[in-house]
Amino acid sequence: MKTVLKALVLLVVVVAVLAVLVFTWIGSRGISARDDPSGLETVVARTMRRLAIPRGDRNRQNPVPATEEVLAAGRAHYADHCAACHANDGSGETQIGLGLYPKPPDMRLSATQSLTDGELFYLIENGVRLTGMPGWSTGTPEGEEASWHLVHFIRHLPEITQAELELMQEMNPRPPAEIRQQIEAERFLQGGDPPPSAPHAH
Ligand code: HEC
Predict the structure, then answer these.
(1) CATH number of 33-173
(2) Which of 82, 100, 143, 202 is the most buried (most CB within 10 A)?
């Protein structure tokens, strides 16, 4: 009985010391999401993520052929849903992207490009827990097809052109105030300044 008690006291002391150490460590690093994860943290997280994707999913190949239309659909979808975090060019350099922990990686680089089609698809459909990456699955065949389009578009990111980037800027979501301003500016340029409710004559 005495040894059990001793062991318990020891356990409590060890846990308390560990707790103090962890709190001191967190306190010294802060909890800012603006920091970059350490190299070790990144390697561990990416390895765990890879292990968590079932082999069958990892080995899937893109069933949708990479036509011009498919790439255009992927580009439009990406500009609307993904660019806020990942940036149109895939660099991840947006205000939201840079403020996340972990940050979205530069998807033009080999760390992302070396993932299989199946892995990219799985990550898009399911997201990544405890990160900013949402799961986009809608549970429909159309939703899956849209994710395969996105896989083609991500493969295309390393050679994206300036013309495409300009096209995407037009498709990026904008705040309502900005849209309203643009409509008013166009109205003014068309020679009139009618009240907002007046019908538009074309
Ligand atoms: C709210 C921010 C956010 C949005 C919106 C978002 N992502 Fe992500 N994404 C992330 C973050 C953060 C990561 C990094 C996750 C990690 O470290 O495991 C990520 C990771 C990924 C990855 C894995 C890349 C790699 O090498 O680790 C892919 C692929 C991806 N996103 C695709 C997309 C697509 C396609 C969309 C749009 C349908 C999208 N994301 C929308 C934040 C976002």
Answers:
(1) 1.10.760.10
(2) 82
* CA of 137 relative to ligand 1 center, distance in Å: 13
Enumerate residues lining ligand 1, CB below 6 A. 49, 78, 81-82, 84-86, 96, 100, 102, 104-105, 107, 111-112, 115, 120, 123-124, 128, 131-134, 136, 150, 154
Q: How far is the CA of 92 from the centre of ligand 1 (A)?
A: 9
Q: Assign 3-class secondary structure to 3-32.
A: HHHHHHHHHHHHHHHHHHHHHHHHHHHCCC
Q: Is 163 helix (H, G, I), strand (E, B) or coil?
A: helix
Nearest CA to ligand 1 atom 17: 102
* Interval 60-105: pLDDT, tens: 999 999 999 999 999 999 999 999 999 999 999 999 999 999 999 9
| In the chain, domain spans | 33-173
Does residue 196 have a pLDDT over 80?
no
pTM of the model: 0.86
Ligand 1 midpoint to CA 79 (Å): 13
